[in-house]
Structures are given as structure tokens and as C-alpha cells.
């Protein structure tokens, strides 16, 4: 298997409405007020979030990213939200000599965006690049879920890969019904919650099979790029 000093890249593709190039807010007008996971803690501690996750998935405090584990920024043209990890903080491995807890990695982060009033955005498709080593009877799965305000399950994109395989991969995932963020109101933040999940499952009853999902051979970071599609929206009457 490859060494772990590589990165994994996930890019969510930009999609415009068929009749034009969308209505992107002026450059620099969308700002990242904060990017922090503690904002989700109150939902996890109360149990509210668990009932909102797709496919009955459960989450806990350990799934909330530490602020020191990643960096996040929005591009000047408002079209990309860049989320970067050190590869040690986003890798899944399956090996007889490692704890079973290493076979999956889930990370939740909340980006709090200051969006000009009267704008909304969506993520329509995702592209993943990385390296996957899977022995026979081992399955690797990559998924990303997102939601707005206090939700995590408004859209989910996922893909499974099956062993045997040992190669760099590129995956395109398309959302049939992408969800738009709430129409931005004056002086109110848009909370954009993202769950990134990678995992390995083995059907080998001897527990000797191996697997690995990590970055390709380009950099030493794990990067997720969310490309945003914008449109204007009508605010409710005051």
C-alpha cells in the first residue's frame, strides 16, 4: 500500500442554470464569518442531529472536526469554498494490525457565511480524486452530505468501490435534485453544514483483508472544493 503522505481531493462541480450564467454576487461580497464545528455541538448533545442524518447514520462528538484539523476559505469570486485537511486527519485504513476504528473517518464542519441579501446558492455535483487500495471482499465508500442552518441531510452524494483494486481514481457524482440555501436576509448568517465520510467494509470472516483510502500522489493535503452555483431570490415581504 502507498504511504500516507498524500492528499485526497474532492471537488464539487459548478453548475449554472440553463438559461444563463447564473447571478453570482459581486466579487468579495460573500465572506466567511466563521468556520467552526462547535456550533453543531448543541444539536449533537440534544440528540436532534442524529435523527436528521441520511440513511440512519449516527454521529457523536468525536465526528466534529477540531478547528486545528482544517482550514477553510471562500474564493474572491464567490464560486468556491475550499476546505483543506492535513492527510493524517482524513484517511481510512483496514489492516489486521490496526484498530477497527481506523476503517472509517467522518468529519463535520459548519461554515457560517455572510451572504448579500437576496442571494441563494447550491452545490450540484461533486468530483473526487484520490488513491484506493482494496483487497478482495473489501468495499470502499466515499460520501458527502450537506445541509443549511441546523440540518445535515438536505443532500447526499456517495459512491462505492469494490476490491480488488489498487489505483488512483476519479469519481463524478451528480445530484438529481440539488437543494438551494435559504434566501439570504439582511444581517443574518447562512449556516452551511458539510459532512465528509470515507470508510472501508470487509466481508472477509478471517479479518485479514486490507484496504486504504487516501490522497493521490500530488500533494500532502486532503482538499475538498465546493463549487457554488448562485442565483437571486425573492425575500419574503416584511
TrEMBL record:
Keyword Signal attached: yes
Recorded hits in InterPro entries, A to Z, give: DUF4360
Q: Entry's Pfam families? A: DUF4360 (PF14273)
Which stretch is the leader sequence? 1-20
Keyword Signal assigned: yes
Q: Which UniProt keywords apply?
A: Signal
Name under which the protein is recorded: Secreted protein
The organism named in the record is Eremomyces bilateralis CBS 781.70
